[in-house]
Amino acid sequence: MNRTYSAPREHAPLLETYETVIAGLVLASGSLAWYVARERYHLTGMQVAELVCYLLIGLTAVYSAVFLLLTTGTRREEQWPHPPKVIPPRRDERVRREAWRHESVVLGYDVHGKPWLWPDRVRVMQGIVLGMTGSGKTTLLRNIITQDLFRVVGPPEDPHRIPMIILDGKADLEFFESLLPHIHRAGRLHQLRILNPSRPDLSVRYNPLHSTDENYMPVVNMVFGSFNLHDEFFAKHQLNYLADIVRVLAYTGVKFNFYDVVVMAIDEQVLREQVTKASRRLERDREISTQRKLNFEMSVRNLYQSFRDRERLPKIQGLLNECMTFLDDELSVITGPYEDLLSLDEVIEQELILFVMLNVNKNTEPVRALGKILLQNLQLVVGKRYESKEERQRKNRPLLSVVLDEFAPFGYRNFPQILQTARGTNTAFL
Fold first, then answer.
1. Contact assessment for residue 138 and residue 175, using Cβ atoms and an 8 Å cutoff
2. What per-residue string of b and e applies to 225-260 under the rule 16 or more CB within 10 Å gives b?
3. Which terminal CB of the chain, N or C, has fewer other CB atoms within 10 Å?
């Protein structure tokens, strides 16, 4: 290779150093302008200097304005923490209504003021809000709840409101009171139902053992699943014992609660009276299958035999203790009545708003038991609707919004299973 081509250049060509070219052009232009101003327009040196200053100020202003305008987005993204973005109320209302027409809610706005939408088709895949205390989780939930209150889904000839179940594990009255004006403005105050063990005078009546059909076994499993029974051997025995008692009470044709279950488990005379009522009803009702009658006879035999067992009470003591939890003075006002009951199925079908406030710091065990049984009941309702072909293929089915805030004390081992089927029933958990 020729050394001439491989050797580095000691001096770059003039055209490659554009700084020199630019400087030369500026000097030449300045000299020409100075000459024209002095010789042709007969301006003094002070006048020329003044014009140059005005020109520099104008160019600087134009350059700064263009630079700030072109780099606004980049500078806003790089700034941390991001300054609050103020959205005019009229624009926010317009954006929200446009989002509702597309079956979405507005979670918020980015640093550029662009709305961030959350479509229902994504929402039913469930969502979790993470953050430290005071980071704004409850504020986000309030925003979503407020929008669900106003939304109307479906075509104009068949409109629906969104049924809502809100479980507040903090029993924050300020949070509830902040939602009341929005509920009233949305015209849904008559659809509001409150469940608060601390305020039984305002709460609806909820009997976990109430069933609208003769399929009582899912209710038994739902109730037993909320109990804190850890001994596997006795747990299975107590589940069968509870199922036998509920089977007898169900065939009597009357409504019953935890008090009736406890009395039947303790008093043999009451048990025999209820067995007699149930047997007479089975004899008159020809629609009950033979297999169901055989199951009833087997349950009666097991219950009678249990009273001859000396260790009967130790074996079912855990079951009795859990049932006695619902006989608490305040909680029994809610879970004890037989009439004017509210079920989660009614919340969905009547498009109601159920607001549950559970203060686990006060009266811990009864409140925790009620929270667990509500989640178990919600899982049962979702499971029934998931296996129903009619429900899954139903058109214009409104979204069921479930908001769980600070619900960790009420969780149980099998709770994540509800998320597997919630999407098929158009249920959104948050």
1. yes
2. bbbebeeeebeebbbebbbbbbbbbbbbeebbbbeb
3. N
> Which tokens in the block code for residue 272?
């025999």
Q: Which residues contact 417 (CB under 8 A, 6 or more apart)?
A: 379
CA angle (40 as vertex; 39, 43 as ends), nearest 5: 70
The token pair that represents 167 in the structure block: 């479980």
Contact assessment for residue 195 and residue 203, using Cβ atoms and an 8 Å cutoff: yes
Residue 355 above 90 pLDDT?
A: yes
Confidence band (pLDDT; 50, 70, 90) for 190? very high
pLDDT in tens, 97-119: 998 888 889 888 887 778 889 89
Read off the amino acid at residue 362: K
Token readout for 220 is 């038994």
Sheet containing strand 353-357, edge to edge, reads 192-195, 353-357, 164-168, 400-405, 427-429
Which residues, other chains included, contact 56 with Cβ-Cβ below 8 Å and sequence gap of 6+?
none
